[in-house]
Amino acid sequence: MLQALLDVLYPPACIACAKVLPGPGAFFCEPCDTAVERLPPVCCRTCAEPGPFPAGMCPRCRAT
User: Fold this and answer.
1) Fewest Cβ atoms nearer than 10 Å: which of 37, 42, 43, 63?
2) pLDDT per position in the chain (64 positions), as tens?
3) Which residues contact 50 (CB under 8 A, 6 or more apart)?
4) Residue 13 phi/psi, 5° resolution?
5) Are 64 and 49 in contact (CB under 8 A)?
6) Which of 2, 33, 27, 3 is closest to 13 using CA atoms?
7) How far apart are CA 43 and CA 40, in angstroms?
């Protein structure tokens, strides 16, 4: 019941454009969701630089 009251007072909104979303569970509205550039599935686990790295970390992150 508390969550329903919070949804009425503070409806879920798109984190990119602040448009009110139809329901909880999504972070972006449909136009913003299609505009977001997706990261490749393989990337550095620290900085998200794209590419396969032997230890899961890019050379720059491994050096620091």
Assistant:
1) 37
2) 887 788 778 888 999 999 998 877 789 999 999 998 887 789 999 998 999 998 889 999 999 8
3) 39, 40, 42, 43
4) -130, 155
5) no
6) 27
7) 7
Nearest Cα residue to 31 out of 23, 45, 19, 40: 19
Residue of 52, 47, 40, 41 whose CA lies nearest to 62: 47
Euclidean distance between CA atoms 49 and 57, whole angstroms: 9
Q: What is the pTM of this model?
A: 0.53
